[in-house]
């Protein structure tokens, strides 16, 4: 390829096609399209997502449906993204030196993306964006709304943020490289930018948010303890699930900056310890998805799993009538849970040929979360309208029912 030989090593082949800022933007916009699909399909099967998350109802039938507004916002964000990317390819033409010089293009789009969420443009789903920003501010500070104020929406948003943890890390890396004199944000990602432990810390923030939410839930149950709510043990168990991500991230960071003189453990021993916590985090999270978030009986007693009133391992009340949907979701969730835990690990990033793989895994994790939302929201709707499951982590919080539309 063309370019100054001194510059050649700074740009990997994948970043020539999709520099890091564009990857971040693509995954964010992809997530908006995915949320629109969530809203659309759940609306078709008569599940009122806005009611569950306490989103303000439409003022009249003339107002666009919520999924239509989401699609409109996604379209407004997608068209400039495609245009910016095509322009970047046209001006760089595969040149590494040109790619380094034109970082203004992807960074300008990221700025545009941020402004679209912050500025009150009325024709860009302003009420939805304002609701999102209020919820994001609340959960970012570790807060959690009361049930009547949209607690389920806060939990849903915080869980989505855990799937975007690596993307948040990449966003920081991209910004850090933009202001660095030694490199460019379109160069090969330097995930050590800002220090060896700053990016791992940023990756861990979404898990910290959910951990604190679980502890808030536990404290609320303890203050208002009753026979229906129990002592709150499941909230602590849920908190432990999010805490299990921290050893994976920390041990990964230690491996990346391994120094035999500092650690009283061999590199192989450190790797085996990291692998153990990857296993714990992956399978604990998978168990929680299936048994607690989706209320499926796969991990329940043999009697519950084999209940003749519903297919093996599922549950009695289901809005998705094809049992294969649930089984496929279980298998996909297991596979992608395992893969995502590994990709949370910053120490794997130094392999040049993994940049495309990292991007793919980030996309797959957002896709997994998109799939997870369908079943999680459906489960919540069943709990509200047909009663919570016996071991539901939100047991006793629903005094009334939300009317079906």
Helix-strand layout with pairing:
Blueprint: H1 13-17, H2 20-44, H3 49-52, H4 66-92, H5 96-101, H6 104-118, H7 126-140, H8 151-163, H9 165-178, H10 198-223, H11 233-243, H12 245-256, H13 267-293, H14 302-305, H15 323-343, H16 355-386
Helix pairs in contact: 2-4, 2-6, 2-9, 2-16, 4-6, 7-8, 8-10, 8-16, 9-10, 10-11, 10-12, 12-13, 13-15, 15-16
Characterization of this structure:
This protein is an all-alpha fold. It has one domain (13-56, 65-386). 63% of the residues lie in helices and 0% in strands. The chain contains 16 helices and no strands. It has helices at 13-17, 20-44, 49-52, 66-92, 96-101, 104-118, 126-140, 151-163, 165-178, 198-223, 233-243, 245-256, 267-293, 302-305, 323-343, 355-386. The chain is globular and about 65 Å long. It starts with 12 loop residues before the first helix and ends in a 19-residue tail after the last helix. Residues 1-9 and 390-405 have low confidence and may be disordered.
């Amino acid at each position: 390829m063309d370019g100054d030989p001194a510059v050649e090593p700074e740009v990997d082949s994948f970043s020539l096609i999709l520099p890091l800022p564009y990857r971040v933007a693509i995954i964010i916009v992809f997530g908006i399209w995915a949320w629109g699909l969530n809203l659309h399909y759940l609306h078709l099967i008569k599940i009122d997502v806005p009611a569950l998350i306490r989103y303000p109802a439409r003022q009249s039938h003339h107002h666009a449906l919520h999924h239509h507004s989401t699609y409109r916002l996604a379209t407004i964000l997608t068209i400039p993204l495609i245009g910016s990317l095509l322009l970047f390819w046209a001006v760089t033409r595969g040149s590494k030196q040109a790619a380094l010089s034109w970082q203004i293009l992807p960074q300008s789009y990221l700025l545009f993306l941020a402004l679209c969420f912050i500025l009150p443009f009325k024709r860009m789903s302003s009420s939805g964006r304002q609701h999102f920003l209020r919820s994001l501010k609340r959960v970012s500070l570790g807060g959690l709304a009361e049930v009547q104020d949209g607690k389920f929406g806060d939990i849903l948003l915080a869980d989505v943020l855990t799937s975007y943890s690596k993307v948040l890390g990449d966003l920081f890396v991209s910004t850090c490289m933009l202001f660095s004199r030694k490199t460019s944000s379109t160069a090969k990602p330097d995930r050590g930018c800002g220090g060896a432990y700053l990016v791992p810390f940023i990756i861990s923030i979404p898990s910290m948010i959910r951990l604190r939410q679980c502890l808030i839930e536990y404290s609320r149950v303890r203050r208002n303890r009753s026979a229906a709510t129990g002592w709150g043990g499941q909230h602590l168990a849920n908190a432990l699930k999010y805490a299990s991500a921290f050893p994976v991230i920390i041990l990964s960071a230690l491996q990346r900056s391994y120094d035999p003189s500092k650690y009283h453990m061999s590199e192989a021993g450190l790797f085996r310890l990291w692998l153990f916590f990857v296993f714990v985090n992956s399978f604990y999270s998978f168990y929680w998805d299936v048994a607690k978030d989706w209320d499926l009986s796969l991990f329940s007693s043999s009697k519950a799993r084999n209940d003749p009133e519903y297919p093996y391992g599922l549950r009695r009340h289901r809005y998705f009538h094809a049992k294969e949907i649930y089984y496929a979701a279980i298998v996909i969730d297991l596979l992608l849970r395992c893969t995502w835990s590994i990709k949370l690990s910053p120490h794997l990033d130094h392999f040049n040929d993994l940049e495309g793989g990292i991007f793919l895994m980030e996309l797959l994790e957002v896709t997994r979360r998109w799939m997870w939302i369908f079943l999680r929201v459906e489960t919540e709707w069943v709990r509200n309208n047909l009663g919570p499951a016996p071991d539901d982590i939100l047991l006793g919080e629903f005094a009334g029912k939300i009317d079906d539309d």
